Amino acid sequence: MESSVFEAQSLFYQSAYSGCIEFAQTHAPNGITDNTSLILLVYAARAALAMGDIAGARQLLGDDSEQPVAMSVLLLADFMEMKRSGDDAGSEDVIQQLIMLLDVVEPGELAAEIVRYQVGLALHENGDTKNALETLGVIGAGGSTELECIALGVHILLEIQRVDLAEKEYLAARKQNDDSILVQYMEAWIGLVRGGRATQQAYYVYDEMSQNTMIAHTRNMVPSLVGKAVAQAAQNDVPGATNTLNEALALDPQHTLALANQGVVQSLASDVTVPEAESTTNMYAKTEPASALVSFWDTKRYELEQAVAAMQ
């Protein structure tokens, strides 16, 4: 793998999306001219989509790209747009077009892995989790060798509360490449879901990631710091989580995920009232109204209110 591709890929994996885009634009200033620039801009476009910037993703790749890997990203952009507008029929049609791309990419290549990831992501976002996992090759048997697909599959398995299957996939992936950023993140995700002592290992993963020289002391470091703070909060180290989030917000004061987690951590601190914490979290809600994190916060708040009412 070209070193520039590795760096863009690493930034994308660490959720340093703005950094990934800037890096790709710097190293591929003339657009898609060869395979290296293609992959760089594919990662940049995927980063833009992760940030919800559909127009930005299309601009990075150009709407007329004929490369299957680029087409998969553009089709995912179409899918996201149709989901936003409530066009279910259009969403289904785009998914079928994505699936067809699987037949025209060469198995074993990075491009094929990215295409498969895009198909799995669209299927899952469309509510077809079973087919998403089958497409990704992640069914708890550890059969896939595509780390991006395994990572997405593990994330989905954790979301549907199949920690047992997620752990089997992680252990199989670790045998392939225990140094991979994605494998380390899988360990952290599973640790946070399992809780207890496993959260300590999650903390170590995020702490190590935050010290990566590629992102250290820049705003690209913020997502890793947020993960570190979540691990600290899971260990009931509220002061430590607060300090870590303050460090993150000093690097990027408007980072919505850091602000949201700051609200959660504030609610855990004994000297901060819930309304104050909610006001911080609402700052995130205003910028990311459809965020799963906001929905999760609202759901848990409602469940707590119902539980308290039932005890009275």
UniProtKB/TrEMBL annotation:
Q: Name one GO molecular function term.
A: structural molecule activity
Question: What biological process terms from GO does the record include?
Answer: endoplasmic reticulum to Golgi vesicle-mediated transport; intra-Golgi vesicle-mediated transport; protein transport; retrograde vesicle-mediated transport, Golgi to endoplasmic reticulum
- Organism domain of life: Eukaryota
Q: Which keywords, in A-to-Z order, does the entry hold?
A: Cytoplasm, Cytoplasmic vesicle, ER-Golgi transport, Golgi apparatus, Membrane, Protein transport, Transport
Name by which UniProt lists this protein: Coatomer subunit epsilon
Q: What's this protein's family per the entry?
A: Belongs to the COPE family.
Q: What the protein does?
A: The coatomer is a cytosolic protein complex that binds to dilysine motifs and reversibly associates with Golgi non-clathrin-coated vesicles, which further mediate biosynthetic protein transport from the ER, via the Golgi up to the trans Golgi network. The coatomer complex is required for budding from Golgi membranes, and is essential for the retrograde Golgi-to-ER transport of dilysine-tagged proteins.
Which PANTHER family does the record cross-reference, listed alphabetically?
A: COATOMER SUBUNIT EPSILON (PTHR10805:SF0)
Q: What is the lineage of its organism?
A: Eukaryota, Fungi, Dikarya, Basidiomycota, Ustilaginomycotina
Which intervals of the chain form a coiled coil? none
Q: Where found, per UniProt?
A: Cytoplasmic vesicle, COPI-coated vesicle membrane; Golgi apparatus membrane
The entry's cellular-component GO terms read: COPI vesicle coat; Golgi membrane
Q: How does it sit in the membrane?
A: Peripheral membrane protein
